[in-house]
Amino acid sequence: MLKNIKSCISPDLVKILMEMGHGDEIVLADGNFPAASHTKRLVRLDGNETPEILEGILHLMPLDTYVEYPVSLMMHGVEVSRPSIWQVYEEIVRNEENHFKAQYLERFDFYERAKSAYAIVATSEKALYANIILKKGVVTE
Amino acid sequence: MLKNIKSCISPDLVKILMEMGHGDEIVLADGNFPAASHTKRLVRLDGNETPEILEGILHLMPLDTYVEYPVSLMMHGVEVSRPSIWQVYEEIVRNEENHFKAQYLERFDFYERAKSAYAIVATSEKALYANIILKKGVVTE
Amino acid sequence: MLKNIKSCISPDLVKILMEMGHGDEIVLADGNFPAASHTKRLVRLDGNETPEILEGILHLMPLDTYVEYPVSLMMHGVEVSRPSIWQVYEEIVRNEENHFKAQYLERFDFYERAKSAYAIVATSEKALYANIILKKGVVTE
Amino acid sequence: MLKNIKSCISPDLVKILMEMGHGDEIVLADGNFPAASHTKRLVRLDGNETPEILEGILHLMPLDTYVEYPVSLMMHGVEVSRPSIWQVYEEIVRNEENHFKAQYLERFDFYERAKSAYAIVATSEKALYANIILKKGVVTE
Amino acid sequence: MLKNIKSCISPDLVKILMEMGHGDEIVLADGNFPAASHTKRLVRLDGNETPEILEGILHLMPLDTYVEYPVSLMMHGVEVSRPSIWQVYEEIVRNEENHFKAQYLERFDFYERAKSAYAIVATSEKALYANIILKKGVVTE
Amino acid sequence: MLKNIKSCISPDLVKILMEMGHGDEIVLADGNFPAASHTKRLVRLDGNETPEILEGILHLMPLDTYVEYPVSLMMHGVEVSRPSIWQVYEEIVRNEENHFKAQYLERFDFYERAKSAYAIVATSEKALYANIILKKGVVTE
Amino acid sequence: MLKNIKSCISPDLVKILMEMGHGDEIVLADGNFPAASHTKRLVRLDGNETPEILEGILHLMPLDTYVEYPVSLMMHGVEVSRPSIWQVYEEIVRNEENHFKAQYLERFDFYERAKSAYAIVATSEKALYANIILKKGVVTE
Amino acid sequence: MLKNIKSCISPDLVKILMEMGHGDEIVLADGNFPAASHTKRLVRLDGNETPEILEGILHLMPLDTYVEYPVSLMMHGVEVSRPSIWQVYEEIVRNEENHFKAQYLERFDFYERAKSAYAIVATSEKALYANIILKKGVVTE
Amino acid sequence: MLKNIKSCISPDLVKILMEMGHGDEIVLADGNFPAASHTKRLVRLDGNETPEILEGILHLMPLDTYVEYPVSLMMHGVEVSRPSIWQVYEEIVRNEENHFKAQYLERFDFYERAKSAYAIVATSEKALYANIILKKGVVTE
Amino acid sequence: MLKNIKSCISPDLVKILMEMGHGDEIVLADGNFPAASHTKRLVRLDGNETPEILEGILHLMPLDTYVEYPVSLMMHGVEVSRPSIWQVYEEIVRNEENHFKAQYLERFDFYERAKSAYAIVATSEKALYANIILKKGVVTE
C-alpha cells in the first residue's frame, strides 16, 4: 500500500497504468466477462466492484480529451431503462473530469475493442451492463 | 467465478488451497504486512478485507484437528483489550469448525512462521492485529 | 483436495474454470482425442472417465442460457443407435441444469471448434463418441 | 495413451519413471499428503486411487533388489490392525516382484524421506495409511 | 530405462507418443534432414538408426486404421530400384500391424507434411530415402 | 506517467514500493554503488539524481515510526565536514515526515544491510556519501 | 557507469545500440507516447528528457548517410510555429553529424513507423512534438 | 575449446551447425549488418573477421551439392572491381570444396534471404561486400 | 551432423565439451545410473553404448595431464575378475592418449564425485561397472 | 558496433561493465580456464585474445584506486622467468592508468576469487599465465 493510492489498485495495475500512453485503453470487466480469453495482459481484482476501481484509476489517470468519446460502454439486448451502474460511473467520471462522454458498443463490437486494449481488469462486479473501457489522456505535471 | 465459491477467492488462491495438504499452513496478512519479502508463493487480494476471505477459505478448507492450535495470531506490544477483529475471526471459525483454538506468537516469531508457510495472502485489511495463520486439516469426501 | 469439490477436478482445472467467463468453452476429450495438438491450454486428467468430470464441473460451473445449444457433441460416421454415453451425459446435465440442449458437429468441425475453446481436458475415457464441449454461463451469487 | 501402459500413468509420470535410475525413489501420496510442499518434482494424478497406479508403475519399473526394503510405508499412531490397503499393496507387489519387503517409517521420518525422493505422485487415494515409497531397481532388457 | 520399452526410446519421446492422439503424426528423420527448422517439437536421438526406433515406437503406438495410408515415405529423384531400407520398414510394420500401406511424397511435399506433424525425431540414420511419417491410430486397452 | 507521481518514479519502482510492507527497506544507491551484485531486485534509474527520487518516494511511502532510525546513511573514511547532500536529504525527509532520524553505517556494514533490503534503486547520483536506506512505515488510508 | 558514456544512457540502451545495424531505427518517445503498446523492445528512461539522451546516443551512434532523411519527426495538428524542441534537436544533431535532414510524419504514420523500429526509448520528456526517430548509419573504426 | 575446432567457432555456433540439415542456410554478416533484427537465432562473434570463421565452418560443414549455387553474396551499388574479400572467400571455399559457385543478390533480396536462414553469425568484419550465405550439404561419415 | 564428429555426439554434448575447461569433469553413466538426480546438466544419449561415445569424446577432448588419474572408474562389491568393458575403455583411451591411468572409487564416492562434475551423459550402456569419469585437459591448437 | 568502443567488446560485455560498481571484479580467462563452472555470469568472446579485450575494457572502465592491488594475476608452478604476456598487460594498464599494481594468487586461490567475481570473460587466449582479474574503480564524469 502507498499514500494516495486506493487499496483496491494493485501493484500490477499501477504499473500498467503508468506504462500506458496517450490513446491506450483499459477495460474494467465485470465478474462474468471472458477476460482471460480476450487479452494478453490481465489484471485480476477478485472480490472488488468496479466503481471503487474506476475511482481509484481516475484519481491517477486522466481521460483522453483529443477524442469525442473517452469512455465506452457495452449495450446489451433491449433495455428498458438506463442501468443504474451507468449513473454511478457518470458521477465518478464527472467528479474527476468534469464531463462524461460515452459511446455505446454492441456486445461483440465491445469484445473486439477489448481485445485490442492495453489491458483488461477482471473485477467481481455483479451489476448488469457494468463493462467499461477508458482511454488514457495526456499527463501534464 | 464459480458456483459456491466466494468472489473474493481468486483462481490462484483456490489452486493453492487445493495443492495444500494436511499440515500445510496459509497466512492471511494485513495490508501492511511485508508479505512479498516473506514468501515465495504470494497471492495478492488487494482491496479485500480479511474476514470475508477467511470465510471463503473455511467454506472450502477444513482446519487441522490433529494439532492443539490450528489457528495462530500475532501478538503485538502491550495490549489493553482483545482486538475486535479477533472476535470476528472467532465467530467465522466457530461457524465452520465449531471450536476456535488459537495460539499467540510474538511479532518476529510470527514472521518466521509465515516464512515457512505454504503461501501468504496479501489483503488490504486495515484492522490492527489482523494477521492470522491457518493450518489445513484432512479432507474427507 | 477441498470440501465440495470432487477429487477428479484438479487444481489447474478449477483455476481454469474460474478464469473462464460467459461464453468461453471447455472441451472434455476422450483418451484418443488429439488434445495436445488442438489447444494451448491443456489439462490432463489421465485415468479418469468423462462422466465424473462432467459432474464435477457442472457442480461448479453453470451452462450458458443465452445460446440455443450450450452443449456440443461429436457426430461420427454412420451411427446405428444413439451412443449410451450420451444418455449418461444427458442425465448428468439435466440433474444440474434441468434441460439438455445439444448440437452435433461433424468430426472436423468439432476439431476446429475445440481449437478455439478456452481449454481442453484430456481424459482417459474409452467410450465412443464421448467428446463433449460445454459453454459457460453467467454466475450469479 | 499407448499400448501396454495403463491409462492412469500420465505422460509426465512415464517420463519421470524413465529418468529415474537405480536407487532413486518415488512416493505415491494419498489425497491429503502435503505433496507440493515436500518435493520439487510433483506429478498430480487427481481422481485416481493408489492401487491402480502402483500396478501401472510396477508393470514398467522393477524394485531395487540390492536393498533389504525396496518399499516404505508410513506408520501412524496406535494401530489396532494392519490397514487393509497394505494387503492390497502387498498383493500387487508380489504379483510383479514375487516378494514384498517393506519397512515402516514414523510420520515425520516418512516426510523427510519423501523430500529426498526423486518425485511425488499426488493421488486422490482416501484410504488411511496409504502413502508408499518405491525404490527403483536395475532394468535389464 | 523401463521394462518393455526399448532403450533407444527416450523419456521425451515416450512422453510425446503418449500426448499424441488419433490422427497426429510423427516424423522419423534421417541424419541429414533439416529437422530443427521444420518443427517446434524436436526429439534428437543422435547415434541411433531409424529401424530400431521404428520398432520401439510401433511396440507402443498403433497406426491409424481410419485412413488409407498411415505411413508416408519420401520419394527422391529418379530411382532405379526400391530402397532396401523400405523393405526393412515394411517388415517391421507388418510385424506389428499385419499390413503395410504407404504413400509416397515428393521431397517438398514431404517437408510441408513434416512441418504440420506433431513432432520430428532426428535420428543419425545414414541410409538414403529413410525419412518416414507415421500416423497414430486409436488405442484400445 | 500518472497524476501525482513524479516522472522519475518508474512503473517498476512504484510496483516495488507497493509490494513492500512495514519494516521492508529500500536502498537509493549512487552511480558507483555495486548495486547489481548486492540485490536480486534491482531498479535502474539511470540519468537521475537521488534527491528528486527521494522526494518522489516519500510523497508515496511513509517511513517507519516504530524504530529509532528509519534512515541509514553510509559513513566513509575520515570526514572533515558533514556532506552537503545529507543536508538536502534531511530537508526532503523533514518536509514529509517532520523529523529526520538517521543512523550511520560503516561501508561494509552498509553493503551487508543493502543485501538484505527488499530492493536497490541504482541512480546516477555523483555526490559523495549519497547512499541512503529507507525503512517503510505503516500506511493508513 | 563507464568513461565516455553519458549517465543517462542505461546498460540496456547501450546494448541495444550496439546490436542495431545499418538501417535499423530507434525511437525517442516523449512521456505520453504509447511506447509499451508499440514495441517489443522497450527501454524506459523515466525522469530523463530527450535532448540529453539524443546527445548521449549520437556520441556513440552515427546516423545513416545512405538515405535522404536519417531523422523523422512527428507532425501534429495545425502548427503555428516550429516547436522549439526541434531547434534543440537540430543543434545536437548538427554538432555530431554536420547536417540535419529530417522528414515529417503524420501522427498515425509515425506510430506505424515506430512499431517497426528496433526499439523505443520511453523518456519523461514533456515538450510537445518531441518524438523523434533515428536511423543508424555505418560504423567505421 | 576442443581439438580440431578453430577457437573462433563458439560452442553455440557448433551446436547450431550440427542442428542444421541438408538445405538449411547460415549467414555470415559483417559488423554493420542489421543481424539482430533479421533473425531469431543469432550468434555473435564480436572481434572476429569473416574469413577465419568461414574457414572454421567449412572445416566442419559441407556445402550443398544438390543446388547450383551453395554460396550467396550481396551485391551493392555500382561496383568498379570485384571486392578483394570475395577472392579470399573463393580461395577458402575452393580449399575445402574444390569449386566455388556463387550467386549475387541485391541488398534487399539478400536481407529477405537472411531472414529465412537458420541462423545469422554477427562478425566484426569491416571489409565491404563481405556478407555471405552458405547452404549446408549432406554429411556422409 | 558435421564432418569429423561421430554421429552419437549430440549438439548439446559438443557444446558442453567446448564449454568445459581445464580440470572440469564429465561422467559417462550407464543406463541404470541415477543421472537426473545427480546433476543439473544432463545430456541423454538414449540407445547408445558408452564405448562409441568415449571414442567420440576423446577424438575431440584431451585428458588432463596435470593430475595422476584423469580417469575414474566405479568399483562395485566383490569382483572376481576385471570387467571386460574396462579393457575396452583402456584400449580406446590408449588409442588417443597413449597411456591409461585410472583410479577406482567406491560406489557412493563415485556418486559424490559425479554430483560435482560439469555434466553427466546418460547412455543406455548395459555392461556392469561401465560408469566412467573423464577430466578435461589443456587444448593447444 | 558503436563509435569509440572496440569491436571485440560485445554488447553483453558493455552492459556488464556498466552494471558493475565500485569494487566489483571481472575475470579475463584464457581459453582453457574452466569459466562456465566458476561463474553464473559468463561472457564468451571466442576467437579473441586477452590483450585487445583488456585494452578495450580499460578504455571504458577505470581501475580501483582505493585498494593496493586493483589487478590480480595467477601464479602457476615453478616459473623460470616472468611471462611475456604480463609485460603486455603491464603496458596496456600503464597506458590507461599510469601505474600497474598487481598481486599474485595461487591457482586455487585464483579460482575461488574468480567464483566471487561479478563476471568471467572467456577468451581464446593461448598464452600461459594469461588469466587476469580487474577491480572496477570510481567513474567520475
UniProtKB/TrEMBL annotation, chains A, B, C, D, E, F, G, H, I, J:
InterPro entries: RbsD-like_sf (IPR023750), RbsD/FucU_mutarotase (IPR050443), RbsD_FucU (IPR007721). This is Fucose isomerase. GO terms for biological process: fucose metabolic process. It comes from Ureibacillus sinduriensis BLB-1 = JCM 15800. The lineage of its organism: Bacteria, Bacillati, Bacillota, Bacilli, Bacillales. It catalyses: alpha-L-fucose = beta-L-fucose; beta-D-ribopyranose = beta-D-ribofuranose. Keywords: Isomerase. GO terms for molecular function: D-ribose pyranase activity; fucose binding; L-fucose mutarotase activity. Signal peptide: none annotated. It comes from the Bacteria.
